Amino acid sequence: MAFFRSVTALSRLRSRVSNLSNSVRWLQMQSSADLDLHSQLKEMIPEQQERLKKVKSELGKAQLGNITVDMVIGGMRGMTGLLWETSLLDPDEGIRFRGLSIPECQKLLPAAKPDGEPLPEGLLWLLLTGKVPSKEQVDGLSKELRDRATVPDYVYKAIDALPVTAHPMTQFASGVMALQVQSEFQEAYEKGIHKSKYWEPTYEDSLNLIARVPVVAAYVYQRIYKDGKIIPKDDSLDYGGNFSHMLGFDDPKMLELMRLYVTIHSDHEGGNVSAHTGHLVASALSDPYLSFAAALNGLAGPLHGLANQEVLLWIKSVVDECGENVTTEQLKDYVWKTLNSGKVVPGFGHGVLRKTDPRYTCQREFALKHLPDDPLFQLVSKLFEVVPPILTKLGKVKNPWPNVDAHSGVLLNHFGLAEARYYTVLFGVSRSLGICSQLIWDRALGLPLERPKSVTLDWIEKNCKKAA
Ligand code: NMX
Ligand code: MLT
């Protein structure tokens, strides 16, 4: 019997491993002897350029679906129109970063400690190369990012020129624009760089930008909410850990939360507002700073990244009105009150996802492990039960389930980062990893200017009657 049990267990394990290895079959686990990130990319680019050429010549005329008037009027929902290499979103399963789901990333990417959360640098390596890095490679990249993390004085002065009451995203995006002064791409372009070399200064700008945005973001936090003093980086810490440290939070659990946070918010394929904006602006050969600042301005909208701010403010308004021990009935009434006043329930719904966002699920697991008794976490859990049936009842909401933003605020709040208006800045820091990784590939593959065709209502009325 014991023999059969162990055979069954072994075959279950084998099938789990083979499922995992199927989804990552093209990924390579790497040894510390492998090349550094820049050299790896240099080696990969000619292969990928050939691959793109082949796809164009062999599959260029393949149809990817019909474009309907509904799609044109309805925010291009369901219309495939972008090439985005770093991640792909499945409506039911959620995001896969270069083929790896979030639980797979948690298993495979190097962590700061045993069984810890993935290091965002490891994810950056994965996004850029499609390969899972070794711990040594990730440590090397952590150091490289720390070495690049020097922010010129005029960036702080540009932020200081704004009233301290300006929204944190306005201050952050202004800081990113000020970083642009050091763009190597812009300088190289002005000197006449050959287009085959565009990716090199784009890589430099991108790594510098990724390294510097946590410093700028931390300054914005200190300026608005603390005494305005800069907390210097700690050379013993990784990217996510250092970001938490520069914000003034050194609890080891908060460091782990920040690693998870930066990893899971980094990329969500190409069509979301921030990624798409970054890609569009970059397609005009705008440098990574200009492109990323534009992306941030999209992220700052309440239907996109600002939803994380809206969620915590909304949860706090529930507590203000009904108290922490709000009953299910009170909660239902509050949700209906929100809907009846013409507002959305923040943190629920999605343009593509049709199930609970796995980024919500992994944050819930983090909460169950580290803060199961937190009253706001318990409220978030209650909302998971109460909100979806109500949204379903409305009859028009395509996805009643919670998204990434429904959960992040209560985790940050638990560790003392309670200033909800700041939350989208954290999302923005993380998104630099995804947007910049794809931007380097845009340049390496020589992707063209983005310029879709638009039409007028007149045009639709005149030309679509027959088709209808
Ligand atoms: N609360 C109330 N109404 C909603 C919600 C919601 N959470 N989600 C969708 N609807 C409404 C939506 O406003 C639309 O109404 P109308 O026809 O009157 O304009 C209708 O349902 C159909 O919308 P969908 O096709 O289901 O969703 P769509 O793809 O247009 O929008 C979101 C997706 C994410 C913008 C939408 O679900 C929403 O507004 N959610 C709340 C805000 C939010 O959490 N955003 C964060 C998304 C994740 N992120 O980080 O970016
Ligand atoms: C994102 O992470 O960008 C959001 O979930 C929105 C989206 O994917 O459209």
Can you describe what's shown?
The structure is a single chain. The chain is built from 21 helices and two strands. It is mainly α and 468 residues long. Among the domains are: 184 residues, Citrate Synthase, domain 1, CATH 1.10.580; 110 residues, Cytochrome P450-Terp, domain 2 (Cytochrome p450-Terp, domain 2, Orthogonal Bundle). A two-stranded antiparallel sheet has the order 1-2. Helix 11 packs across helix 12. The chain starts with a helix and ends with a helix. The structure holds nitromethyldethia coenzyme A and D-malate. The site of nitromethyldethia coenzyme A (NMX) has 22 residues, from loops.
Q: What attributes does this structure have?
A:
Citrate Synthase, domain 1; 468 residues; binds nitromethyldethia coenzyme A; mainly alpha; two-stranded antiparallel sheet; binds D-malate; Cytochrome p450-Terp, domain 2; 21 helices; single chain; 2 strands
Count of strand segments: 2
Order of helices and strands: HHHEEHHHHHHHHHHHHHHHHHH
Averaging pLDDT over every residue, what do you get? 94
Low-confidence stretches: 1-26
What is the structural class? mainly alpha
User: If you compute it from the alpha carbons, what radius of gyration comes out, rounded to the nearest whole angstrom?
Assistant: 23 Å
| Overall geometric form | globular
Strand order of the largest sheet: 1-2
Tell me the CATH superfamily of the domain at 142-301 and 422-445: Citrate Synthase, domain 1
How far apart, in Å, are the first and last alpha carbons?
A: 66 Å
Classify the beta-strand content into a percent band.
under 5%
Overall CATH class of the domain at 142-301 and 422-445: Mainly Alpha
The hetero compounds bound to this protein are: nitromethyldethia coenzyme A, D-malate
CATH architecture of the domain at 142-301 and 422-445: Orthogonal Bundle
What is the helix tally?
21
GO molecular function: acyltransferase activity, acyl groups converted into alkyl on transfer
Pfam families: Citrate_synt
Family: Belongs to the citrate synthase family.
Active site: 304, 350, 405
